[in-house]
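The following record pairs a protein chain with its ligand, flavin mononucleotide.
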Amino acid sequence: MSPAEPGPSVALAITGASGAMYATRTLAALLERGTHVELIVSDYGRRLLRDELGDAASVDRLMPFLAAKYGDAVEAGTVALHSNRDLGATIASGSHRCTGMAIVPCSMKTLAAVAHGLSRNLIERAADVMLKERRRLVIVPRETPMSLPQLRNMVLCAEAGAMILPAMPAFYQKPKTIDDLADFVAGKILSALGFEHALYPEWTGQVPS
Ligand SMILES: Cc1cc2nc3c(=O)[nH]c(=O)nc-3n(C[C@H](O)[C@H](O)[C@H](O)COP(=O)(O)O)c2cc1C
């Protein structure tokens, strides 16, 4: 993982909700377009990467995993991995040039912390920075069903300026594989961060045959 910072810079947080593939697809798509990614993975995010995608997707082996699964184009971008315990990291400050952040997937615990501005770890603090600096914060919650406190926490985040982008793939594109579903959600996340992509076909007015 390189410390170099060419091109646009965004933060990506992976927390301990189901849907690790949404995170790896989003990370790969950002890297493919030459983005510098400030990556933070919570303890349970690390567990979910391994539980859902296998040991090859553990954080210390993530770049080879992405290259094997999505191709060498991921090497166009760079990743700086931060400890979630390091509240002195660059992205803990509004003076850092990071332009946006996505939390993919976002656990209900981290959602609650962002909703209430707790800033107890780097993920929570970096999200708080995005809100106070009026930058893009994309929250991808994953839970079902949802309690009233969880629903209220989403409203609080939306009121504070975050975009709530639930991990809800659509089916009108006729997905054939799990990867197609992950592509759709990752494409929505890139759009929300302001990036162009070709992760799903543009809607033409008719479902594909
Ligand atoms: C296998 C597994 C799956 C989980 N799935 C979810 C989930 O989909 N959504 C959620 O909010 N929490 C889920 N959890 C619980 C969170 O991981 C737990 O609340 C954790 O404290 C979240 O911490 P974090 O936000 O710092 O990653 C899951 C836990 C495990 C072990």
